[in-house]
Design goal:
This protein is α/β, with parallel strands linked by helices. 38% of the residues lie in helices and 21% in strands.
Length: 388
């Protein structure tokens, strides 16, 4: 592969930028050594995250799960609190991982590991029953430690106002920018475990299973969905609801082959893309200058496979590499909480999605992105273009 001088400079610049953002002597500690006191008025919400992970356990104090791979899935739960001072789209982390301050920062208060899948399944059933059969499965992306995965899911659930059971699938990312190939292989090795988890959630009584996957998490999610389709169970017996791939780090041609095997989605299938996603630009260079789905500009081509493409290129975000807009822009994260659309009819989905964006933009405020900043392409748009 030949890389131009400009591309090489860009690669080095982005490498340093992302690596600098991850610098912390103890950046993967989840459970702090001490916890500062906080009153109930200083806590905006408390959440239990049910975890399924293919990460290996570690003896490092407070880290719990490392970036190493485990041949078996481990099941756990984490209780996390959100401070009342939290701002939508922000992820307030303590500057000292050794000290938790729930009044000012996200804080993991308690963690437990289930003895086996049966015990985890029992906890799932109880939680799902208590939450009217609704469940959200979140799959994180590349360069993500277990601690960041837990806090990101908590932030998304809180800001989106999601009221169902929260389930985190955490695959063994090394959480280092230089380990892209390792992470990709780890995600691939975890596809069977994710497939098994989705089936377990369905067996546990969930009636509406929403899937939200970010970045490389989109790759492992598509592989798991593809495998479900190969067993004639692509919608988990009608229980699979909305699928959201946010900035998916998937080769465009590979994605098309995955969708050809999966087939036309029965429910709403959303892809958040952005042409100024610098992380995906880096991924594209590493992959031999092959376009990534999350940075693709031909939305109509993707929509032919039955997906709804939401181009958020012009939407603002505090993320300086524009890779986590879906979670950090108040309008977009609220869209996730609204369930996006609740109908199976593509035409109605198109109309309701536009109406919902307009309504949310008006209620949240124009400073964080109006409806005009979002470009939506649906399968119906492609059909109309062909008919014209």
């Amino acid at each position: 592969m030949r890389v131009s001088f400009a591309a090489s400079r860009y690669f080095v610049w982005l490498l340093l930028l992302v690596a600098a953002g991850c610098a912390n002597p103890e950046n993967h500690r989840l459970i702090a050594r001490t916890t500062a006191p906080a009153t109930s008025a200083q806590i905006a919400g408390e959440y239990r995250i049910l975890v399924a992970t293919t990460r290996a356990e570690t003896t490092e104090p407070g880290v719990i799960f490392s970036g190493d791979r485990s041949p078996a899935t481990t099941y756990a739960f984490v209780d996390v609190s959100v401070p009342a001072v939290h701002q939508t789209g922000e992820l307030e982390r303590s500057p000292s991982p050794q000290v938790a301050d729930p009044a000012r920062y996200f804080a993991a208060r308690r963690l437990g590991i289930y003895r086996d899948e049966q015990a985890y399944g029992k906890a799932l059933r109880q939680s799902i029953e208590a939450h009217d059969g609704r469940a959200l499965v979140f799959i994180h992306g590349f360069n993500t430690g277990f601690d960041n995965a837990v806090y990101r899911m908590t932030q998304i659930a809180h800001d989106a106002g999601f009221k169902g059971t929260l389930i985190l699938f955490s695959w063994p990312s090394a959480a280092r920018i230089v380990d892209y190939i390792y992470d990709n292989n780890s995600a691939t090795a975890s596809r069977d475990a994710l497939e098994d988890l989705l089936r377990l959630v369905a067996r546990s009584g969930a009636q509406r299973i929403n899937v939200v996957a970010h970045s490389m998490g989109g790759w492992v999610s598509m592989e798991a969905l593809r495998q479900l389709a190969m067993t004639d169970d692509k919608d988990l017996g009608g229980r699979l609801a909305d699928v959201v791939l946010a900035s998916p780090d998937i080769d465009v041609d590979v994605f098309k082959s995955q969708m050809r095997r999966y087939g036309t989605p029965d429910r709403s299938f959303f892809i958040f893309t952005s042409r100024n996603d610098r992380a995906l630009d880096l991924s594209k260079i590493i992959a031999g200058n092959r376009a990534r789905v999350g940075g693709a500009i031909d939305a109509a081509e993707l929509a032919k496979y039955g997906v709804i493409v939401i181009d958020v290129t012009d939407v603002s975000s505090p993320d300086r590499i524009n890779h986590t807009k879906f979670a950090e822009n108040p309008l977009l994260v609220r869209l996730l909480g609204e369930g996006l659309v609740d109908t199976e009819e593509p035409a109605s989905a198109d109309q309701q999605l536009v109406q919902r964006i307009n309504s949310l933009a008006g209620s949240i405020g124009q400073t964080i992105g109006a409806a005009a900043d979002i470009v939506i392409t649906t399968p119906l748009d492609v059909l109309e273009a062909v008919a014209d």
